[in-house]
Specification:
single chain; four-stranded antiparallel sheet; 11 helices; 6 strands
């Protein structure tokens, strides 16, 4: 909905164009407020409001209204030129009809799924799927858990920082946390979350391949340039081609199972509708070879 300022700006910016009330031809606008028109194609205030982003600053609100109205008018004019230059085409009508049917089907299927399908996958199903299909869940790139620290070369107590980063005991991490509050340029602690190694390397003057090579030899890496010192402690490291743990693959498996469940559910709905239509005689078969549909449905029921 339009904000208060949005309505004020919309009215002030476009009220001068409200000429339609003086038109000789009476047009039913179905309760909408016309702002502009081109050959009886109208831009309505309500259409602007439908796409308006609430709480925009005043200047942004004015720009939004101007851009929306201009874009809409340009589309109307271009469509008119295109319609004159492209003859009536049965293929276009067919494509529009196919798209409409597809849109209706998708919207209805989504509503059915939302209303009737359970949303959660039991943990036992996820675990069973993982155990049976481990080969599907391999890392496509190096990942790591740990911490990343960047401090100035002129920072104090750097020797202690080295000790804390390498030790990573609860006491070390507490000292490090206190130290970084006032001394760190960047401090990122992600022991419980996986990060792409490439994203960590991007914060240092080092390539991802070089960082991986160093971390394979030692889980703690220190690197410096003319201005800063960088520390990385990889508490966990996986490389491309390694198998994902169940925890890492859990969300991916949930999505796979949920999508499969949705497909099966919709197929069952379609099957029931077809079966009912055949049994009630709503489907009339004029060619005997298609009577096999009855046999196929019976076979499916008996499986």
């Amino acid at each position: 909905m339009l904000s208060k300022y949005g309505y004020i700006i919309l009215t002030a910016l476009l009220s001068a164009t409200l000429f339609c009330s003086s038109c000789k031809e009476q047009i039913d606008h179905k309760g909408k407020t016309p702002l502009l028109s081109v050959d009886n194609e109208f831009v309505y205030k309500e259409d602007v409001a439908r796409f308006y982003v609430a709480n925009l600053p005043v200047s942004d609100s004015a720009a939004f209204v101007r851009n929306y109205v201009r874009s809409t008018l340009e589309d109307i004019l271009l469509l008119k030129v295109a319609s004159r230059n492209i003859p009536e085409d049965k293929d276009i009508a067919r494509l529009v009809d196919d798209y409409k049917k597809s849109l209706i089907l998708n919207i209805y299927q989504d509503k059915l799924i939302e209303q009737q399908l359970r949303r959660e996958i039991p943990a036992t199903e996820v675990t069973t799927f993982y155990e049976r299909n481990k080969e599907l869940f391999m890392h496509e790139e190096p990942m790591m858990q740990g911490l990343y620290l960047k401090i100035s070369k002129s920072a104090s107590n750097i020797s202690s920082v080295r000790k804390w980063v390498r030790g990573a005991t609860p006491d070390d991490l507490e000292n490090l946390e206190k130290y970084t509050l006032t001394n760190a340029i960047v401090y990122d602690y992600f022991v419980d979350n996986w990060r792409k190694l490439e994203s960590v390397a991007a914060r240092m003057p080092i390539t991802a391949d070089d960082l991986l090579s160093r971390l394979k030899k030692d889980n703690v890496v220190e690197f410096s340039d003319t201005a800063a010192i960088y520390f990385v402690n990889a508490t966990n490291l996986v490389v491309k081609g390694e198998q994902k743990t169940l925890d890492m693959a859990y969300g991916e498996i949930e999505d796979l199972l949920l999508n499969s469940m949705k497909v099966n559910f919709i197929n069952e709905v379609k099957y029931d509708l077809l079966k009912q239509a055949l049994e009630s005689g709503d489907v009339k078969i004029y060619d005997k070879k298609y009577s096999a549909l009855f046999d196929e449905l019976s076979e499916q029921e008996n499986k």
